[in-house]
Amino acid sequence: MKKNKQLLKGGILTALVALNAPVSALEKPQTMEDMWKIIQAQQKQIDEMKSGMQAAAPAKTAGGDVKNLERKTDVLTQEVEKLRTNLTIPDEVQYKSAYGLGPAASKVYQVGKGLSIGGYGEANYQATVGDEKTKSDNADFERLVMYAGYKFTDKILFNSELEFEHGSTANGGSVSVEMAALDFFIDPMANVRAGMVLMPMGFINQIHEPPFYFGNNRPEVERQILPSTWREIGVGLFGEILPKLTYTAYVVNGLDAKNFTADGIRSSRQQGSQAKAEDLAFVGRVDYAPDIAPGLSFGGSAYLGNSGQNQTFTNQSTKAQQNVNAFTQLYEGHVQWKYRGLEFRTLGSWGHIDDAGVLSAAKGQTIGEENYGWYSELGYDILPLLNPNTTQYLAPFFRYEQMDTIASAPVGFSDDETKNKQIYQFGLQYKPIPNVVIKADYRNFTAKKGSVPDDFNLGFGFIF
What we know:
Number of strands: 18
Largest sheet: 16 strands, antiparallel, barrel
């Protein structure tokens, strides 16, 4: 706002000087509305000048004066147009995270008023490596996402995320609303958000733009144990309790236990599509970034709620029917440290599902009574070591993951040890500019039982 005021004052001063108008005629604008009133006044003056020119030109009595007036009018017109552009489109967008969202998703929080557009996309090539290939090598435009936000006032705004997956609605692709919520700013300590909200769990679920995580694929722990991108319909609060101590808390529609599988809770997300809301759930998160350790932040989150949704579960063997609550718990803790070129993350998660035996009998497969997963990763930007003045980024990285969606099987059901996995991943991340990333990585999968092929991935991503 301060920069726009300076641009406005400077531009009108230039125009007034060109027109030999007294500089004292410029009133100092105090608000955005004042700025537009001044611009409108100048536009009116332009119209009056042009009318005078049209009347004077046929008489041919003031040719020189008309040309001079036309030149001055053009100067004023150009200045007004520059002001309009500068007030509408900032010279340089500052990409930074706000209220737990990704930098591109946070653009609406930076505008003075009105519409904000942003987005991101990513594409990759994957080659399966190993004797037992479960899928073919493939190339995929994995997703293209558009952010559209609108700031109605300083206190009320709307933000949304629309995703196009896999290039088309054919072959498993889809078009989905991944976020659509109204924010009501009341106080720095307590603000309201309502709509389709992203579950505030882990690193990736809220900040999932490709330049801000290592590798072409999101960590498997944050796909299967913490199922990104996880969104539900809800309402809640967010804010800053103390300096650098932030929180987010929602009440949302619960999961649908009929879609629990041996692979975890991922497929039980309802995604705001005619979501069953017989059972509700609570999700909350707290983060702290102490000043004494620059770049360090840590926190945790929890999800608690019934998932039965007042449905009947039929035992496939006995045909007996039963209603259950299927109370679902999910907890995670995380630490992140960014210091100069160093980037470190670690996250751990544990979950528990009540009535897993009933759900397993109805599903015909073992639903884990408990599940867990954790990972740690480390990367370092090496380019400043070679060229201290570079603005580019090149980081080798390493990630280790361990997870098991059936960490504990319900009584009477056998464990599936193919779900107990370890993943070793290493790769390179290159950013010619902060908005664009090129990635290459290799993932080695091992399971307690069975063979899982490795994969090599090459791709790119961008935000705007």
